[in-house]
Amino acid sequence: MPHIQVLNKQVSELIAAGEVIERPSSIVKELLENAIDAGSTAVTVEIKHGGITYIRVTDNGCGISREDAPTAFLRHATSKVRTEDDLSSIGTLGFRGEALASICAVARVEMLTKRPEDPFGTRVTVEGGEIVGCEEAGCPDGTTILVRDLFYNVPARLKFMKKDVSEANAIASIVDKVALSHPEISVRMIRDNKPEMLSPGDGNLLNAIYAVLGKEFAAGMMPVEYELGGVGVQGYCSLPMKSRANRSMQHFFINGRYVKTRTAGIAMEEAYKNSIMIGKFPACVLNLSLPLSDVDVNVHPAKIEVRFVNERAVFDAVYFGVKSALAKNDTFGANKEPVKPASPAFSAQSGEQLPLREKPKETPVPSHPSVYAPSAPKAQKTQPEARTVPSGRLADPGNVLYSPSTKPGEQPFRYIPGELSEPASPKVQEAPVPAAQPQEEPPAGEPVREAPAAAEERPSLRVVGEIFKTYILLQCGEEFAMIDKHAAHERILFEQIKSGKHALDRQVLLSPSVVTLSKEEHAAVMEHLALMEKLGFTIEDFGSSTVLVREVPVILDQADVTQTVGEIAENIRSMKKDAGPQVLEDLYHSVACKSAIKAHDDNDIEELTRLAQEVYENPDIRFCPHGRPVVITMTRQEIEKKFGRIQ
């Protein structure tokens, strides 16, 4: 146990003013932080009547010596900070030396503490900030602090306490966060003589999540492990199908400290964009590891908010880490071999500023399919012609195969995946193998990518049929899958429009459409005619808050022109003069949604096969722009369990 000393005035004035004890949860938080800093492996929190009448926190840490025990109750007395330089790299949860002094000022406090090397422990009694007793006592190794009769000498503050159940829930929330941030510590909570929570303390975060948040919550989590630019991200985030209605289950920790960070929260939600439904939010338990000198925890009285030296590095690490986890969790159409731990695939670009919404297009790194990275220019590839599903993942999502029954010279239906300009021949041909080229050094700042491994055999795809004229049924080896044809086609068109492919070629309407708008919408459209041109519309002012639409995107049905233009006009009006990237995505989404195949449309087996093939080959098509799932899979084992064939 380091020696406890009172900080000099020069150092203590550099520390942000400490928060007064407002409620019992404030006491539990400070005492738990001290227990963790003492190297404890087991901590017990016991409360009665919401912690107002009784709080006991017991740990098996290093303990305090007889000489330092009385000093610990003085203000600005700490063993964790010595000089001004220590404040620039704080590695402990507590450092101000104000917790015990603040607690003793408003409650009756008793401390029992003993170091392993001491034959006897020490008992210190404090009331109203004054030490009334200090004597030897028999006690186990570690420290036990009892807090009784909170605010007994401040009745004005006592009347602001909430009901016992509310105060107890606030304490339980603090205890839960400690158990999640330090899975190597066994945390127990006893509430009114009834055990409430016990974490195993085995160092396994998923076990801690199970103990704290329950079985169902833990079952809906996927692991995240990533490092970029000196920032490590470890923990778990929720599966897209397990999203929640609010952000209450987002838990972020910086070097083991629970914090509220808008940077990490925005990064995670950006990674989930177009993967969960609008209005839903992902859950997570993520711990960020970064150098102590790169984060300042001395900016908030409760130490719950922090500042980063480089917020961009934190944003990128969380964003790409969650993206990698989402890709690794996608198993439809992917090889079922275990995924090897991925090495960092990115290098931080100094001075690079990426907008929060318009992020670089992610492509799988060939050597590690589950890790996303900013895309590099892709070499043009020869389209192989085939009749059946080839083995191995195609490197280019544009390699979409036509149905075996497609005959030479036939034109494909209006859904045109990839860059194919004409149907493939039924004759199987092999793509030419290019001659080996000398390897060139990658440009500075670009990620080093390994050569892709040889293609491995994977299951063939067989379309079984369609139900409700909405869902495509198919078999993929030992998996059964259902594809929402509208959601799949909508996402395909959305990606094509974003990438600037031929999907926005225009067609002239034989009879121009007249669209009536509100005055605000009409003014907004007239101010952004260039934006409408970019979206594939040629529009003229027709007077009296109406516009004349002469050209529309080829992919858009004329019947949808009025509704689509109306939606785009409303989006432009609501964005006012800020035509940011996120607004463009909303507009692209409007066009894609109206242009896609609709549920209950009549499609033959050839069209369904080509659509299913595109989903199978392209791992980006797993959720529609609304966030609804495109494909749902079940293994043969799961199906046979439901029929009772296996146990």
In terms of topology, how is this protein built?
Layout: E1 5-6, H1 9-12, H2 24-37, E2 42-48, E3 54-59, E4 77-78, H3 99-104, E5 108-114, E6 121-127, E7 130-137, E8 142-148, H4 155-158, H5 164-181, E9 186-191, E10 194-198, H6 205-213, H7 215-219, E11 221-228, E12 231-238, E13 250-254, E14 257-259, H8 262-271, E15 284-289, E16 295-296, E17 307-308, H9 311-329, E18 362-365, E19 368-374, E20 461-467, E21 471-476, E22 479-484, H10 485-498, E23 506-516, H11 519-527, H12 529-534, E24 538-543, E25 546-553, H13 561-575, H14 581-595, H15 605-617, E26 631-635, H16 636-642
Parallel strand pairs: 2-9, 13-15
Antiparallel strand pairs: 1-4, 2-3, 3-8, 5-6, 5-8, 6-7, 9-10, 11-12, 12-15, 13-14, 16-17, 18-19, 20-21, 21-22, 22-26, 23-25, 24-25
Helix pairs in contact: 2-5, 5-6, 8-9, 10-14, 10-15, 11-13, 13-14
